[in-house]
Amino acid sequence: MNNLPDPYGHFDIFGGRYAAETLMPALLELEVAYGKAKKDKSFAKEFDWYRREYAGRPTPLYFARRMTKALGGAKIYLKREDLNHTGSHKINNTLGQALLARRMGKKKVIAETGAGQHGVATATVAALFGMECKIFMGEEDIRRQEPNVFRMKILGAEVVPVKSGTATLKDAMNEAMRYWVGSVRDTFYIIGTTAGPHPYPVMVRNFQSVIGLEIKKQIHKTEGRNPDMLVACVGGGSNAMGTFYAFRNEKKVAMLGVEAAGLGMNTKEHSASISGGKVGVLHGNKTYLLQDEHGQVRDAYSIAAGLDYPGVGPEHSYFAKTGRATYVTVTDKEAIEAFSFLSKQEGIIPALESSHAIAYAMKIAPAMKKNKIIVICLSGRGDKDAQTIIETM
Amino acid sequence: MGRIGLKFESLRARNEKALIVYLTAGDPSLDATKKLILGLENSGVDILEIGVPFSDPTADGPVIQAASQRALKTGTTLHGVLNLVADIRRVSEIPIVLFGYFNPIFAYGVDQFAKTAKQAGVDGVLVVDLPPEEASELRIHTDAAGLDFIALVAPTTGKGRLKTILKSATGFLYYISITGVTGTAAPKAADIAREVGNIRKLTGMPIAVGFGISTAAQAQEIGGIADGIVIGSAVVKLIDENRDSDDLKEIVCEYINKIKKSLG
Ligand SMILES: Cc1ncc(COP(=O)(O)O)c(C=O)c1O
Fold it and tell me: With an 8 Å Cβ cutoff, are B59 and A181 in contact?
């Protein structure tokens, strides 16, 4: 587990680099550049500085007293990634990749986005480092995450609407990859989650692992021990892997990844790749995938745009297969209830994505002993979701 | 030597260039694809690339994307495409390459796929998202079945990497003429001449050039450089524009005839 992935980006049977030849040299170049940066203390120092001075890290690990009391069981802590600059964990990764792009001398960046949080975080670092920025976003997501579209434009990015398929995250990623095939010589592709071809899954995981490292330090300070359980939502898997990774060797810490069950696991309208998919290859890696019997990728669905993706990062597939983490599901309806619950109990409006993690904790906390500790990754804030919530009311 | 190798040998002996045509199977229907293919053979097409539609063709431009979507809507599957090849084989010896993405093959089962494809009469496979680094899981089966494994070389492929690719390529080498997805730019002959020249220093394998060739003039120019050219998006577009015409086959064949003549 500690020396994965292998040099070709494989986590056991998952991961790899299933990419068009045109992109292969760029992926190899990125791997080398990232390998160098990883060993370079000045990169770590620079990254650290931006995380602290610009993004506002460390984020608090907040004891949710009223929520804990209302549920009547385990103690609940919230890792406040929503308090990062730009409002989600996505900035942890975009800062890392933009610094790398700068080292590689690339002045243009592109990204895909679903909820728009990764798009905003990319547009933000592009502005910060004076880079040209294009964001690919499905038209359905442009509609349901409008505030983030405005933010990206204000930050100086071009938002490219994607019409194909269901016009959501998968389609945005397809289009970003196609654009990259044509622009690969001078453009850096900032992938927003622990997916894509090697080295993206491992690189994004490492950039996000700060979440779990901070949790560990903070919980040891307040509780003097590790949590019993970590809970995080899983779209492509970056906030979850960031939360889990520091604890991967601590066998007593249970890890729960929450996938989106959309309208229900007994329907086709969900995004639960691990719970409801089969192994396949999409967007450069082998992983659990929603697909039909002929290997055609199925359209995912979730009320949370950031979870509305038919694949999942390969390391999560590996964690699922080995049993290191457990993957569960939460429906739209449960997520909406959790959204409202946290808003009213704690005065914190969570992103609909993060609401999936909250909802699962709400299901299991009441039956747990009061001395148990759950840490939930509150991956982002919910301002962007006001429109969606109003539409459901 | 398989049908592909023999074809290039006989073309070389006559000092001719290979005309390779790509079609998306099942667009507008598998039946139409079959009729088109048989017509194309008579119009002088040397090798066929039959596209297996995939839901997420990330290396393809809008034309082939749309064709794949249409083909999937009419229920085209890899199974159906293999049956189509078997059907064609009853009446034709034209070399056939299956062109597509890995997931439909993976879902079918790599072992079963190689066996069935060979039985059906497929000669080679080209899997866009399976670079040499990942190819072995399929190649152990396609090699055993005696199928050629067509490798792609891109304008971005450096010399060191090219050598690695050449080590395992069989059939012919497919040089991607543009830095971009299919059908989105016109190839630049001078750049291609230089790159193909560099590849030739390292291999005697036939080199075909494709991704963006659409006119007779381009065919002639690039045919003068490579051992073969691939026409893809241009044919797919023509098929779409004339999908409802009774003369679909004639229109497509007329266009291909023109290209063939310019190739010389
Ligand atoms: C707030 C928030 N949480 C979670 C996600 C899901 O991504 P990941 O699984 O990579 O953390 C997103 C994606 O857009 C998001 O915006």
Answer: yes
